[in-house]
Automatic annotation (TrEMBL), chains B, E:
Organism: Novosphingobium guangzhouense
Descriptive protein name: Molybdenum ABC transporter ATP-binding protein
Pfam families: ABC_tran
Superkingdom per UniProt: Bacteria
Residues annotated as domain ABC transporter: 1-202
TrEMBL record, chains C, D:
Keyword Hydrolase part of the UniProt annotation: no
Full protein name: Molybdenum transport system permease
Membrane topology value: Multi-pass membrane protein
A molecular function GO annotation: molybdate ion transmembrane transporter activity
Protein keywords: Cell inner membrane, Cell membrane, Membrane, Molybdenum, Transmembrane, Transmembrane helix, Transport
Function: Part of the binding-protein-dependent transport system for molybdenum; probably responsible for the translocation of the substrate across the membrane.
Provenance organism: Novosphingobium guangzhouense
TM stretches of this protein: 12-38, 50-71, 91-112, 138-159, 199-221
Domain of life: Bacteria
Signal sequence extent: none
Length: 234, 202, 233, 233, 202
């Protein structure tokens, strides 16, 4: 039989560690290790729309998955939302800020004269969720002018862990991995759309290893890996 | 007929006209500063396009506006000693001298260097030459390119008297033995009278 | 094309301000460095050259990150600047200008260095014999003779400033009206599916901005070129 | 410092390959454009100048997106290249080189243009009278006299290539061993909280790479400078 | 004593030595090409640092290696007509002439331009000048800077005979009326004999 080829997996950048761990585990089972390209979901979706020769796509949000599905680039019946994440409020590790997340919480007061680090609420998923949560909690109008939007969750996280911002909104997985921050509170799941990561095999995929890897991600063994990094699974 | 010239060209706001014929031998251009001597040499070398007219050198027509003839500078085979020298600053004296050299004919390399007194300068870069040394290298470069005719624009301006005499003898030899048409610009009456068969006032 | 919305105007004006301040503030620094690299010889020169090139070599996000380490109020240097000069950069348009300036620096230095290396030093010595000290010689001879390089530096620097994204968003954040320059607005738009037309519109604005700068510089180059005159062939 | 891991070696070698191919392939194009802009006058010149500057002005991500639109196998031009020359760029190291080359183009053009504008045209006319046609004049006079600019273009272009991130990740993606150059590896490391030391290590590699290029170029500049010689004052 | 010179300097591998004193009036440097005339002028102007020695002009010591005196070029107040002219290419003839001009004393502007025949060139850029025109502008620039002494390196090499005579008369007037020390390099014996009180062979 001809040697099996590595599938190409396109994955949202925030999955860096967990997806690499999954790929390693998959390779240990005797499969060719997937070649994973990590970038912003938007960039990956555009590459797919341009005919990129890839097999599997894991997006950090649903709209970009919808976008390529509408373009007929998703293999029928393979799109599954399999990961969840929580949205949390973080502060620098040595900060003694206290705040209970809830309606009309005194977020502005807690910021003092600093700013709230967040992924760009105009487009980056984590920022969109953050804006939803702050809106539903009634604090968006007061805090809207006090944001420090970064290019990604990671950018927001760095601002907090460097002490440039006293508070920030990131995913639970990010907070957990960064020793420079501590979690102040978790946003109630009801305050924002579910943070979910859909996976799909692409319509143009010719490599059966791709679909096999997607199935592995959805297996209990696969999901366990992601749970280890703090994701919720469905 | 070595030079047969009739042309007009424009420099800034001034319009310059030239018309003369000169028989064999050396033709001296004589005229005050700013009269247009260098401009004429540039036109003959093909570096300046006349508005109209005709340029014939040694029987070959190089430019004729009526007949739409305009030989490219690199095909005119002139040995031009520029008033501003124009040595190539990025290569050694040796490579400057060899730049236009052809495999056949022409002057003997060693003998020419000897006469010009530049044999010791071959490995130097032009920027390190004294004024007179640079001028002699410029003369050498033109002579060694085996030209069909010579254009010399005050070639001896910075050359000392002793060397000047030797170079003049070399020019005379080229004029007489090789029978090259020479157009020679100088402000020195004595030099002109010694060399020139024809004197053209500009 | 539709007229600009107020938000687009805001972005455009901010980009102009950031880009303009960035290159004007960077120009003297860049010229000084170009001078050093073109004229001086000293041990460790390559080191300075390397530092100048850093923002070109490193991914912009890393540069932004380094700026954060140096200029945030938590850092000793940033705290010092705030205390003594009242200068803060974080989350301010000044920070966007700083990031843009730093990113433009290597391009500006190189353009000016190239021109300085082409200046005929014999003309400087002529100025000295005519009674001009080093400073007057610089202003009246060296600087005008390297004007093309300064101009090129301004154009390159301005274009780079108008296009700078990664360092700015990392260091100064993407705050509408304060640090959201054109590239940051474009990036925001790029993240939203189906917003291509908005991206194209904003990109068009960037292009217009720098075409204007280019036309201006070409005109200046041509003017100075005509003055030097006398082309042969 | 620890020795490089095999993965780091891979990234380093790939970066070298991508950067090297990018500037070597871009050099003649850039020189041609520089020549046109320095020597010709024609209507629409500013337009070409503007197009050359585009990759500098636009956020790199937009440039990557435009490359995607032009060179993807779904696009007519990309399909044509694939059909006739078998050239594919998407998800290939060739795509990373293309992106790097395009991003380096404006810098290379400007450096060479600046040098070409400084070449004394009277020397070219002297070469013509010595029997050299336009081509030989170019090779033996114009090119060596603008060598400093070509060198600067190579250094700037290489540095830019080594640092290029946005266009590459957007166009060629971030595939280890194929398109993951140093900046993309740095980006990946940046996504992992607490991996600062890895980021610093990789950034250090970038810096080393371009310091090497700088040292080489300084040495070449000095050599040619010494030859021209005779400094007064 | 107008010039009191004793110095040695290095050019490439060659070592050049100079030692002479000259009384008032014009001193001509006479010597073959490459002898080191321009090098000496550069050293007196402060553009080339001698290895050791002393330079005194008109009673003022400009350089003395023993006493660690080395007056800066801009403080030496010399009017230097360079062999390679060195007109500033980026400014007009007018602004070249005005570059070193002082508010007080010195030659009359209009009269000097008239004598040099460059009054009509004021708005031109140097690159458009003919060889002789450029040389006369270079002379004008040096004279109009109200110098304490003059260094002239083959100032009339490309100037035509008629104009040359006028300029020589101007130089004589400067020598006699303004009593400026002048160091003058020329290859023209007649010129030197006409002008020089002292002839220094190099
Ligand atoms: N950088 C250098 N390296 C080597 N030799 C040099 C350098 N600069 C000058 N020279 C040599 O020093 C000597 C003196 O030069 P200088 O220019 O003073 O001569 P000069 O008397 O003015 O000659 P000319 O009448 O030809 O102008 C010349 O032989 C010249 O080749
Ligand atoms: N680009 C230009 N614009 C205006 N005038 C010009 C230009 N180029 C040359 N001239 C003028 O044309 C005239 C002829 O110049 P040319 O160089 O031919 O003189 P020449 O006879 O060689 O003088 P010289 O003996 O001083 O070298 C001069 O008066 C010069 O000023
Ligand atoms: O991983 Mo993302 O697409 O930067 O939220
Ligand atoms: Mg002339
Ligand atoms: Mg000399």
């Amino acid at each position: 039989a001809p040697a099996r080829q590595s599938p190409v997996v396109l994955a949202a950048a925030s999955l860096q560690e967990s997806m690499n761990a999954a790929a390693d585990a998959w390779a240990r089972k005797g499969h060719p290790r997937p070649r994973v390209s990590f970038a912003a979901s938007s960039a990956l979706a555009r590459q797919i729309a341009s005919g990129a020769p890839a097999d599997v796509f894991v997006s950090a949000d649903e709209p970009w998955m919808d976008d390529i599905q509408n373009k007929g680039l998703v293999r029928k019946g393979t799109r599954v939302s399999f990961l969840r994440n929580d949205l949390v409020l973080v502060a620098p590790r040595n900060s003694n800020v206290r705040l209970r997340i809830g309606r009309n919480m005194p977020l502005v007061q807690a910021l003092g004269n600093g700013r709230l680090a967040i992924a760009d609420p105009a487009g980056v998923p984590a920022g969109i969720y953050g804006k939803q949560a702050l809106t539903r909690l009634g604090v968006w109008p007061s805090v809207q002018g006090r944001l420090a939007p970064g290019d990604s969750v990671r950018g927001a996280l760095a601002l907090v862990s460097r002490g440039a911002a006293p508070l920030g909104i990131v995913y639970a997985t990010d907070a957990r991995a960064d020793p420079g921050v501590r979690v102040v509170g978790i946003f109630p799941a009801a305050s924002h759309d579910p943070v979910s990561y859909p996976v799909t095999t692409l319509a143009a995929s010719r490599n059966p290893e791709g679909e096999a890897f997607r199935r592995y991600l959805l297996s209990s063994e696969g999901k366990a890996i992601f749970r280890r990094f703090g994701f919720g699974t469905k | 007929m070595s030079f047969d010239i009739a042309l007009s060209l424009r420099r800034g706001e001034r319009s310059l006209e030239y018309a003369f014929t000169a028989g064999s031998g050396l033709t001296a251009l004589f005229g005050p500063s700013g009269a247009g001597k260098t401009s004429l040499l540039d036109a003959i070398a093909g570096l300046l396009r006349p508005d109209k007219g005709r340029i014939t050198v040694g029987g070959t027509t190089l430019f004729d506006s009526a007949a739409h003839i305009d030989v490219k500078p690199q095909k005119r085979h002139c040995g031009y000693v520029f008033q501003d020298l124009r040595l190539f600053p990025h290569i050694s004296v040796r490579r400057n001298l060899a730049f236009g050299r052809k495999a056949y004919g022409g002057l003997d390399w060693d003998h020419t260097l000897d006469l010009l007194g530049i044999g010791g300068l071959l490995e130097r870069m032009p920027a390190t030459l004294s004024g007179g040394e640079a001028q002699r290298v410029a003369i050498g470069r033109a002579l060694l390119s085996t030209p069909d005719f010579l254009l010399m624009d005050e070639p001896l301006a910075s050359v000392d008297a002793a060397r000047r005499d030797e170079i003049l003898r070399l020019v005379e030899r080229i004029r007489d033995e090789m029978r090259l048409p020479i157009l020679y610009v100088s402000h020195d009456r004595a030099e002109v009278e010694r060399l020139a068969q024809t004197i053209v006032p500009v | 094309m539709q007229p600009l919305s107020p938000a687009e105007w805001e972005v455009l004006v901010l980009s102009l301000k950031v880009g303009g301040v960035a290159i004007v503030a960077t120009l003297p620094v860049a010229f000084g460095l170009a001078w050093m690299l073109a004229r001086w010889r000293f041990p460790g020169k390559v080191l300075i050259d390397a530092v100048v090139h850093l923002p070109l070599v490193l991914p912009p996000v890393v540069t932004g990150w380094l700026l954060l380490l140096a200029f945030s109020p938590n850092a000793p240097f940033g705290a010092f600047l705030e205390r003594t000069l009242g200068l803060t950069f974080l989350f301010r348009w000044t920070g966007a200008a700083l990031a843009a300036g730093v990113m433009a620096l290597p391009l500006m230095v190189r353009a000016m260095r190239l021109s300085l290396e082409g200046v005929d030093r014999r003309l400087e010595s002529a100025a000295r014999t005519l009674g001009a000290g080093p400073w007057r010689t610089f202003i009246r001879v060296t600087l005008p003779l390297s004007a093309n390089g300064v101009l090129a530096a301004l154009v390159l620097g301005f274009a780079r400033s108008v296009g700078e994204f990664g360092a700015t968003i990392t260091f100064a954040s993407n705050i509408p009206g304060e640090t959201q320059t054109l590239p940051l607005a474009i990036y925001s738009a790029l993240q939203i599916p189906g917003s291509d037309s908005q991206v194209v519109r904003l990109a068009g604005l960037s292009v217009l901005l720098s075409v204007a700068a280019l036309v201006l510089s070409e005109w200046l180059i041509r003017r100075s070129g005509q003055q030097r005159g006398r082309h042969v062939i």
